[in-house]
Each structure stands twice: as structure tokens, then as C-alpha cells.
Design goal:
alpha/beta, Fructose Permease, seven-stranded mixed sheet, two-stranded antiparallel ribbon, 6 helices, 24% strand, globular
Length: 161
Amino acid sequence: MAIIATRIDGRLIHGQVANLWTTKLNISRIMVVDDEVVNNDIEKSGLKLATPPGVKLSILSVDKAATNILAGKYDSQRLLIVARKPDRFLGLLERGVPLPELNVGNMSQNANTKSVTRSINVEPKDIADFDALAAKGVNLYAQMVPGDTAKPFMPLLDKVR
């Protein structure tokens, strides 16, 4: 399987993903999975600019990402999947993409969120999606940068229920 890592990050591709994670994990392709970004040319342009030289970029809907992964399109590559919200990963899992673990990196704050950590903020729907992922056996952990110690995510989430 080509999937080396999966990460939730509200900023998608930025310094931490573009430099730290891709370098540490020797990533050859970043896949952004987001049905809205697929149709936003300005956002797609920004993501292309943020992608490190020598790393390929795919910006796909949940359906297209699952189809491509399951067809073995990336089997010869080292793939990092990034999405803003847990529902994208739940969608991949429900379509048959194996996801043994998920790094919960950064989720932005808004009027409807509760703060789990300084950089992870969740809405009620996110909590339900994380519960569903955990129920399906996905190991959820919080880790901002490769040098940080990974912390189990569900106990952190339990504190804001």
C-alpha cells in the first residue's frame, strides 16, 4: 500500500506539511482530499505553489481519491493524504480504503468549536466523525510536527464532550 501517512490539517499544505512531514517521511506525493477544494481554482493554485519541489500533488474528491487508491494508481509512490476534517477520512474508509491510523494535526477555531488542544478545535459533527473512525479501528493520535511525541487523541477528545 502506498499510503505512508494520513493527516488532518485545516491549512492543508503549509510549512509543517510541505517541509517537515514530507521530508521526515520521504513523501513523493501529497494527496489533498476535499470535495470543495477540487472546485476552487484559487485554492488549488495556492496548494500547487506550497507543494515542495519534486513532490507530486493530487487534489481529489473523496470518491475519486478512493477509486484511484483502490485501483493501485499510487502503489509505487509514498503517499501522504491530507484533509481538513475527519469526515473526508471516514468517507475513504467507508469506500474501502484501509486507514490504520490518522494524525490529527491542526483544526481551526470558529464560533461552533470546542478546543481540544491549542491547535485542535472540534465541532459536534467532528466529534461524531472521530467516534466513527475510532469505532472502525482507526488509531487516532495528535502530533503537530515529527519531533513531537504522538499522543492518543480519543482521551483528549473525551475532555471536551
